[in-house]
């Protein structure tokens, strides 16, 4: 598979320019991607329970990666971000309570626009090309994979919990699309910084 990239492999770790907490999060997520994808691709007869768990975990890995990318961009480009961009990165929205006090709450941001934003903002912060191409057919696979995960998390019938081999192929395609783009942006950043794979 394509899960050979870790920031530690590119020696971005312990570089004073980067916060290792994001490296740790991305490394752990890449481990989870590998484990969960291997769970659904290495067996010819996978149990429905393992397949459901793997699909839920894989989409959660995307969400974690997107959050880490946004935080990384915030650290690298804080002064050049608008207040609105900073709020989206922090996943906050504001409202007035009954006493007229300003309060914040967690924003509900759909994964696809959040991912587009994360790739764009990190690319800008690091001065590299954005590798995410939403016209790629796998972008639609990713959106469908998210719907499959949502169906598993909020089932309305026993049928909602059933994963077909077609569902699993689509999820694998979507995950490979996301991780391929993640690898591409991280590799571009490493090359720009003169850091090569070790």
Question: In words, what does this structure look like?
Answer:
Helix 2 (48-77) crosses helix 5 and helix 5 (137-153) packs across helix 6 (165-192). Residues 1-16 have low confidence and may be disordered. The protein has helices spanning 20-41, 48-77, 83-89, 111-126, 137-153, 165-192, and strands spanning 92-96, 102-106. The protein has a two-stranded antiparallel sheet with strand order 1-2. It contains six helices and two strands; from the N terminus they run αααββααα. Strand 1 and strand 2 (102-106) form a beta hairpin. By secondary structure, the protein is mainly alpha-helical. It has one domain. Helices cover 61% and strands 5% of the residues.
Low-pLDDT residue intervals, each spanning 5 or more residues: 1-16
Radius of gyration over alpha carbons?
Answer: 18 Å
Structure annotation, total helices: 6
Q: Main sheet, how many strands, which sense, barrel?
A: 2 strands, antiparallel
Briefly note the structural class of the backbone: mainly alpha
